[in-house]
Amino acid sequence: MRISIKLKFSLFLAVLLILSVGILSYFVLRGVGLNQQAQIEGLLAQHVKTVNLRVKQTYYTGTRLTPQAFMQQRGKALAAELAGFTGLQVTLYDTKGQQVGTSLQREGPAAGNPADALAYALQNKIAYQSSGDTLLYLAPLQGPEQQMGVVQLEYPLQDARSFQRTLLNLFLTTGAAVLVLSFIGGYLYFNKAAAAIGRLKKAAESIRRAEYISAPPVKRKDELGELAEGIYFMSREIDSSIAAKDEEQRKLQLAVQKLQALEQQQKQYIGNISHEFKTPLTSIKAYVDLLNMYDDDPKLLSDAKLSIAKETQRLYEMVEKVLQLTALEKYDFESQAELLEVADVLQDICSRMKGKAERYGLKITLDAEPAHIWIDKESFMHIFINLLDNAIKYNVLQGTVHLHGRVRDHRVWITVRDSGIGIPAASRDKIFEPFYTVNRDRSRQSGGTGLGLSLVRNLVEKQNGTIELLEPDGEGTAFQLSFPVMS
Questions:
Q1: Which residues fall in a coiled-coil region (predicted)?
Q2: 216: which of 8, 76, 282, 312 is 20 to 30 A away, CA to CA?
């Protein structure tokens, strides 16, 4: 059967209090009794001395008689006289143990039967015995030469015993009150301690159910308080460890998902590369076969040389951009960042692309506010050369390419807008994917590989920038980029 700790503490306290009060009462009452006995014996011994002195005085001042005759003749008078001196009942015996006088109203033996005590006292020794509420004290009477009898003093014990009963009742009532009050106080204290232990147990059960506590279950300045702090610390550490484990598990799951996505992307990437490489290689192989068959045809030889050179250049550009894109995706980008003035560098880029634009009958314009950014200059130039190259390739005759730069919200916002063929709505979400081209025939004619915008996005993100394709506003295409401004 399970017994609660509160009941165990209460029972232990009750037994401890009962034993304490009982032992204390026993020794106090026993000490009081022994003290009273010692006082009575001292008082009676003093009375015996007085009796002996009085008897000797009477014996020497009267007619000279033998001790036996003296006791027989003067016993009654002496007993009455000595009772007046001592305030006690006095009985005198001669050396033969016969009563020769008493202060009692009745004649005969005293209270009880002091025969044994009398025989002991006749041997010149002191004897006493209790009889009811009376103490009989027998002591030898000393004569001129030897013992001439025995004096018996009767001491009433009613007052002493009444005092002992009063003291006992006082101990019983006071002890009972102290016992009850102490039990109530101890019960309340132990009940508080037991309640604290119960809260500690409840906290431990909550931790076992993975319900971690947010504060110590008990606030005390003792061992229970220290135990509560320890349980709270343990709960917090377990919760932190499990949270860290869950976070690691989440990261592992995310890593697995990314690896799966990368694997799928790699498969698609390899498929796209194979497909894109196959087209120019097929064209080259076809011209090689024709040359083997008609090597004396001047026109075929000229066309073959131009086509093979064009497809070879396309393959070379494709390989270069694939290598650049792979380096960006696989390794940390190593750049030499420097303070760059945006408007000046954009002006330099427009100047470089001006010749190609004029070959296509296009016009490049620039409207940019001065702004300083912290960026790798080569990456910045590569980004906008790619964007301007695309704007030229996919533009229309007599078209325009416009660059616009403004500073807003601690960033420089640069828009590259052209008047070209635009991007269909169905292709807007895929425009930054590797090898994706809106019009494959137009891309082949212009030498496009479908890697330029993917490379541009990677470079922009590596430089803490953003790039987005704006919603069409009329004809053409517009890209908006932003970079943090150095204050």
A1: 245-272
A2: 8
**For residue 291, with 0-12 CB atoms within 10 Å meaning exposed, 13-18 middle and 19 or more buried, which class applies?**
middle
Give the three-class secondary structure for 485: strand
- Determine the Cα–Cα distance for residues 315 and 393; give it in Å rounded to an integer: 18
Is the alpha carbon torsion for 213, 217, 223, 226 positive or negative? positive
Nearest to 414 by CA among 452, 450, 380, 458: 380
**DSSP-derived secondary structure for 106-170:** S-S--SS-THHHHHHHTTT--EEEEETTEEEEEEEEE-SSSEEEEEEEEEE-HHHHHHHHHHHHH
For residue 38 the two structure tokens come to: 């010692």
Strands 99-102 and 89-93, sheet pairing: antiparallel
Sign of CA dihedral 463, 404, 325, 454: positive
Note whether 443 and 450 are within 8 A (CB).
yes
Q: Could you read off the pLDDT of 269-289 as tens digits, one per residue?
A: 666 566 566 667 777 877 787
Sheet holding 411-418, edge to edge: 363-368, 400-408, 411-418, 478-484, 466-469
Is residue 187 over pLDDT 80? no
Tell me the average pLDDT of the chain: 81
Q: Kindly tell me if the per-residue pLDDT of 333 is higher than 50.
A: no
State which H helix or E strand residue 411 sits in: strand 411-418
Give the pLDDT mean for 117-125.
87
Q: Name the 3-class secondary structure at 417.
A: strand
Q: pTM, whole model, 2 decimals?
A: 0.41
Alpha helices in 294-376 (DSSP H): 298-330, 342-359
Q: Is 41 helix (H, G, I), strand (E, B) or coil?
A: helix
Q: How far is residue 117's CA from residue 140's CA, in Å, rounded to a whole number?
A: 11
Quick check: 439 pLDDT over 60?
no
Placement of tokens 């296009």 in the chain: 362
Q: Compute the 3-state secondary structure of the chain and give helix, strand, coil in percent, each to the nearest 5.
A: 60, 15, 25
